[in-house]
Amino acid sequence: MGDFVFLKVLPWKGVTRFGKKGKLSPRYIGPFEILERIGEVEYRLALPPSLSHVHNVFHVFLLRKYMANPSHILSLEPMQVHEDLSYYEQPVEILDYKEQIQRTKTIPLVKVLWRNHRVNEATWELEETMTQEYPHLFKATM
């Protein structure tokens, strides 16, 4: 007990589950903590209040063991969401520089790491635009 498992969501044709319908709906939800083993093949799970209408004892064929992985945990700073449900993207640092060469001109680009995003989600932006809008990023690198 104390292990975590995913709970299989049974497919019902034409039913929308968790905001998705058909093939795009999740196959498993969770992870949920195992509270106790009931019999040979049944387990009681700690379900959240949103699933309080569901009986909390499940057969093993509906469960899949959750393997804890630190890369699954995202540590993001809290966002300030505006009334219109938008938020302001803030650049954190310049990761790389490159020049995109076209037929008649060369365009300088910078790779920008944004707050609340991982390094692999960094984007290439025009150096001129970033220098005008966020000069503090370039003072630190010079």
From TrEMBL:
SUPFAM superfamilies: Chromo domain-like (SSF54160)
Tf2-1-like SH3-like domain ranges (all copies): 2-66
Superkingdom of source: Eukaryota
Pfam family, one: SH3_Tf2-1
Name listed for the protein in its UniProt record: Chromo domain-containing protein
Organism per entry: Cephalotus follicularis (Albany pitcher plant)
